[in-house]
């Protein structure tokens, strides 16, 4: 059964490490599969729209994501690589490892990412808006980067809209 893991917060050294590539042979390991299930459980409970392995104190290059709209499915991306990034814009962002805060950050509005899925098969995800933003945010985590490093006007979430973004899962309502 999946269980909720502890999400580590800004200040924890694991969040600042460059995470290690996953050996494709490890993907079929039941412990790795359990970790993926636990990360989904943890992300949905938070709630959040994405969760990178370093946030549960596992310094490996993969993340789970579910922006919960009609066009996209939950995804696991292992050893992700950005293949396309275009149309830089400013977006409002939050992070489960920096609870209660939001800030503005420059992101690409359209990205494509390749990697492996939980069966070790090659995948390519492409999307816009929150989907693209989330992909970039999760890949930043794998490189030891938090959005607060680059954010403008970092502030405590105060308006309902800001709180929804800080409480993440509701972010797609915008
Ligand atoms: O749940 C999340 N919501 C969110 C909203 C705007 C921009 C980025 C995100 S990612 C965040 C979950 C998280 O911290 N993932 O690493
Ligand atoms: Ni985050």
Our count of helices gives 3
**Radius of gyration using CA atoms only:** 15 Å
What letter string, H or E per element, gives the SSE order?
HEEEEEHEH
Largest sheet geometry: 6 strands, antiparallel
Strand segment tally: 6
- What low-confidence regions span 5 or more consecutive residues with pLDDT below 50? 169-174
The CATH H-level homologous superfamily:
Peptide deformylase
Structural class: alpha+beta
Calculate the terminal CA-CA distance, rounded to whole Å: 33 Å
CATH fold label: Peptide Deformylase
The best one-word shape is globular
Estimate the helix proportion, in percent. 10-25%
Mean pLDDT equals 95
Ligands bound here?
Answer: ligand GNR, nickel (II) ion
Task: Describe what you observe in this structure.
The protein starts with 29 loop residues before the first helix and ends in an 8-residue tail after the last helix. The protein is built from three helices and six strands; from the N terminus they run H-E-E-E-E-E-H-E-H. The protein is of the alpha+beta class. Strands 1, 2, 3, 4, 5 and 6 form a six-stranded antiparallel sheet that branches. Ligand GNR is lined by residues 48-52, 55, 93-97, 133-134, 137-138, 141, 165, 168-169, 171.
Give the key terms:
174 residues, alpha+beta, Peptide Deformylase, 3 helices, 6 strands, 31% strand, disordered C terminus, binds ligand GNR, binds nickel (II) ion
């Amino acid at each position: 059964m999946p269980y909720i893991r502890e999400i580590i917060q800004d200040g924890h050294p694991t969040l600042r490490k460059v995470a290690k590539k996953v050996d494709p042979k490890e993907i079929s390991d039941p412990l790795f599969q359990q970790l993926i299930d636990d990360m989904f459980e943890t992300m949905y409970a938070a709630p959040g729209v994405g969760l990178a392995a370093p946030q549960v104190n596992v310094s490996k290059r993969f993340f789970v994501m579910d922006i919960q709209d009609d066009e996209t499915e939950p995804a696991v991306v292992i050893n992700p690589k950005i293949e396309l990034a275009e149309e830089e814009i400013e977006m409002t962002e939050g992070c489960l490892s920096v609870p209660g805060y939001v800030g503005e950050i420059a992101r690409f509005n359209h990205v494509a990412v390749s990697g492996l899925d939980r069966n070790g098969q090659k995948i390519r995800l492409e999307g816009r808006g929150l989907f693209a933003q989330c992909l970039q945010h999760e890949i930043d985590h794998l490189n030891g980067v938090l959005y607060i490093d680059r954010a403008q006007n970092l502030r405590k979430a105060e308006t309902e809209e800001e709180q929804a973004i800080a409480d993440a899962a509701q972010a797609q309502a915008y």
